[in-house]
Structure formats: structure tokens, C-alpha cells
Specification:
347 residues, 38% helix, 15% strand, alpha/beta, disordered N terminus, globular, 5-stranded parallel beta sheet
Length: 347
């Protein structure tokens, strides 16, 4: 039986008992920046002076968004103008987690004077294709001015083919593309599937983008301890009780939550979190199954977008992915999730 938590304002619910539904129209309506980036602008992006690439990228993106090109350097009145390099229809922000890529992506969205523009995570776009079908998705986005894609990742060959075709059709129609990732476009899929078999498609896709490398340290780790907060049982009970008196709280065992995520499409994870003010997880253990780990990453991405604090017992959440996983092809995904988990337990 389907249910959603939106009708309750306070109290405790079990996420493992919810079966949310999301329509294609709901998915399209959700293609806007997460609430934490509602007011993101280039002016509020704090470039770290220790990493000049952050300021340089910001200026390039301001020009891409229609804020004017950077002022030319040197040259006189009668000097021959330098040939302006061909402007590509897309920008691709490559860099480690926590350097402000999503903030910059949202800044592009807010700054570009576009009539039709969309902002979503990579998984939201691929889920939309699954819900509407490829051709209807193309028709939906055809003629749009801007498509922002956060956390661009290619986890399987099917996604490679779908996104390559989709971007190619949209770019040919005049749509601008802005994307972020922890992986350069020519390395997408590395270590996960036979990327060489899809090299032509990957290269065709990367040809649409000007790649901008952003260096820096994870801003989430600058002001907090490097480990997730772990509560004992009395501390956890007190946290849940206190939060439930003021808002809607979830309380699940880690095993039950992980098992339930396997029954819910990742595009619906955001519906699991509707109305929540805190996520409670008991008896966390280290994950051994890669599919389960990737589902947890997708869930944590949605929780982080919504800025929902997490309280947990058991194994520290920064230890939930084993060494074998951290050494594999999804390493950067897991490290990003760990960074976000640590931040949410300190909220």
C-alpha cells in the first residue's frame, strides 16, 4: 500500500514502510536546484585564493551564462584582434567533491536569462527517460535554453548510449549544457564497464563540452571533524524523541533501510524524504554488496540536497564502504557520499 509522510508534521515514521510514487510530471517539476542552492549566485561563491582555478572557472562560467566575456589583456587600438576560439555549447566542471561545483552549476542556472531551463542530477535525467521513454524526453527538452546536469556519471553502457544521444539531439537544437562530475568526460565509465567498447560514444559526448578543472579541498571538511558522529542508544533515543516533538523524524534499522532501498527506484528516493526534519538509522554496519552501496549513495545524495540531518548508532557512517569498494571504479562516488554523511551527522 502506497503512503507518504507529507500528511504528518511531527512524530516518527519508518522509511522502510513507505512506497512512494512519482509521476513523470512530478519528475519534471522537480528539475530545479535543490533548496540549499535556491539563492546560489556567482557572487556568493567563495573562491579559495589558494586554488586560482576556482576564480578562473567562476569568471569563465559568468561569461558562459551571459554575463559578458572576461576583459581582454594587452593589445592596442591598431593591433590585430586575436582569433576567438570556438565556443562549445557546453561546460563540464571536473573536480573533487566539496569544491563548490554544484554551487557554480546552480549559479549558471540562476544567472542565465533563459526562458526554459532545467536542473537535475544525472540519475534524475536517466530516470525520466525510463519513465517517459526516450523520444518523449527528447520532445520535452527540445528547444530548451539550458540543461544543468549535476554529478554526471556513467555506471553502465545503457546510460552511455542514452545520454550521448540525448545531448547530441539537444545541442544540435541550440540547447546549452552545463554539467559537473568527479571524472573528466574522456574517463567516464573507467573501471566500471568495458569503456573502450563505447569510446566513440564517450568521445562524441565529451566533444560538446569545454572541460574546466577545479582544484581545491572539500569545504565540508574545513570546519568539522573528519568522522561521522556516532550516538549510543540513550543518545539516539533522546535525539529521536526531541526531534519528533518538533518535526517529522524517521527511525529505521540500517538493515531494513538498505533492504527497502532495493525495492524503490532511486528517482523516488526524494519522495521518501518528503517532510522529514531528521533521519534516524540504528545499528549501522559496513556494506559488502556493491549494488546496495550505490543505492545508499543515491539516497544520501537526496538527503544532502534536502539538508536533512542524520543521527545513527553502530558503525561510523564514514566507515560504511569497505576498502575494496573504495579501491574500485566507484571510488569517487563513495568518497563524495562519505563527505556528505559526515557533514549531515554534524548538522
Amino acid at each position: 500500500m502506497a503512503s507518504t509522510p507529507t500528511s504528518a508534521r511531527t512524530g516518527v515514521i519508518r522509511l522502510s514502510e513507505l512506497s512512494p510514487s512519482v509521476s513523470g510530471a512530478d519528475m519534471v517539476a522537480a528539475l530545479v536546484p535543490p533548496p540549499q542552492f535556491d539563492g546560489a549566485t556567482f557572487e556568493t561563491y567563495r573562491a579559495d585564493p589558494a586554488y586560482p582555478s576556482q576564480q578562473e572557472t567562476k569568471e569563465t562560467l559568468q561569461a558562459f551564462s551571459g554575463g559578458g566575456a572576461p576583459a581582454p589583456r594587452g593589445g592596442g587600438l591598431f593591433r590585430r584582434a586575436k582569433k576567438v576560439p570556438e565556443t562549445k555549447p557546453g561546460v563540464y566542471l571536473d573536480g573533487g567533491f566539496g569544491v563548490g561545483k554544484t554551487h557554480l552549476l546552480a549559479s549558471i542556472y540562476h544567472a542565465m536569462p533563459a526562458r526554459r531551463k532545467y536542473f537535475g542530477s544525472f540519475i534524475e535525467y536517466t530516470a525520466l527517460v525510463g519513465a517517459l521513454g526516450y523520444q518523449k524526453t527528447v520532445e520535452l527538452f527540445r528547444g530548451s535554453d539550458l540543461l544543468c546536469i549535476d554529478e554526471f556519471e556513467l555506471d553502465d553502457p545503457g546510460d552511455t548510449m542514452v545520454m550521448t544521444r540525448l545531448l547530441g539531439e539537444l545541442v544540435s537544437g541550440g540547447t546549452k549544457i552545463a554539467a559537473t562530475s568527479n571524472t573528466p568526460p574522456n574517463a567516464l565509465g573507467e573501471g566500471r564497464f568495458a569503456a573502450q567498447d563505447f569510446l566513440r560514444e564517450i568521445q562524441a559526448m565529451s566533444a560538446h563540452f569545454e572541460t574546466l578543472r577545479i582544484d581545491g579541498t572539500d569545504y565540508r571538511q574545513r570546519a568539522i571533524d573528519g568522522h561521522a558522529v556516532v550516538l549510543d542508544e540513550p543518545g539516539y533515543e533522546a535525539a529521536v524523541t526531541d526531534a519528533a516533538a518538533r518535526g517529522l523524524v524517521s527511525d529505521d534499522t540500517f538493515a531494513a533501510l538498505i533492504a527497502h532501498l532495493a525495492t524503490v527506484h532511486p528517482s523516488r528516493y526524494i519522495r521518501l524524504l518528503d517532510g522529514l526534519t531528521m533521519i534516524g538509522i540504528r545499528d549501522v554496519t559496513q556494506l559488502l554488496d556493491q549494488a546496495a552501496a550505490l543505492r545508499l549513495v543515491a539516497f544520501i545524495d537526496r538527503a544532502y540536497d534536502a539538508q536533512i540531518p542524520i543521527r545513527a548508532t553502530g558503525t561510523s557512517l564514514d566507515q560504511v564502504f569497505g576498502e575494496e569498494m573504495l579501491g574500485g571504479g566507484y571510488r569517487k562516488k563513495y568518497l563524495r557520499a562519505i563527505s556528505r554523511l559526515v557533514a549531515l551527522t554534524h548538522e
